[in-house]
Amino acid sequence: MSKISKFFKGGGSAGSKGRGGPSPQEALARLRETEEMLSKKQEYLETRIERELAVARQHGTKNKRAALQALKRKKRYEKQLNQIDGTLSTIEFQREALENSHTNTEVLKNMGYAAQAMKKVHENMDLDKIDDLMQDITEQQDVAQEISDAISNRATFGDEFDE
């Protein structure tokens, strides 16, 4: 494979070799890095816009050419700032979608583990044995109730005899 085709197919990337792409954690880390970089660039452009506005005010009517040039630079910086805002929104949306997908994957994986555990627990259970056990429990509860009723009834030793 030529160097150019490796470059365009991503063959040179060490993080994605043999796995079919980056892990969610790697992708999230890169998206966060990009967000931080763009945020810093936003701050830089905002200070440049303020500086150009101050230059335009300073020159005002005295030097119209310098004031117009400062306003043109300010407008360019504002355009770049708007582009960065759009890019940041897209990156935030992608990061949130990736986080949600990763969370869903983890939930699904854990639900699979729980299903396997339940299957293992129920492996040794037989419905006929459970039914027999429940019948035995019901019978013993009935016997216990009869005993309790017999004990709780008043003894009427003297009432049975008429004088």
Key traits:
163 residues, mainly alpha, Helix Hairpins, 4 helices, elongated, Snf7_fam, coiled coil
Describe the structure.
Residues 3-17 have low confidence and may be disordered. The protein is mostly helical. The radius of gyration is 39 Å and the shape is elongated. The chain has four helices and no strands. The protein has a domain at 24-113: ESAT-6-like (Helix Hairpins, Orthogonal Bundle), CATH 1.10.287.
Can you describe this structure in just a few lines?
With 163 residues, this protein is an all-alpha fold. It contains 4 helices and no strands.
Secondary structure elements and pairings:
Elements: H1 3-9, H2 24-59, H3 64-123, H4 127-152
Helix pairs in contact: 2-3
Provide a count of the helices: 4
Say how many strands there are: 0
> Helix proportion of residues, in percent?
over 70%
What is the multimeric organization of the chains shown? single chain
CATH top level assignment of the domain at 24-113: Mainly Alpha
CATH fold-level assignment of the domain at 24-113: Helix Hairpins
Q: Overall mean pLDDT score?
A: 85
Full CATH superfamily name of the domain at 24-113: ESAT-6-like
Question: How would you characterize the largest beta sheet?
Answer: none
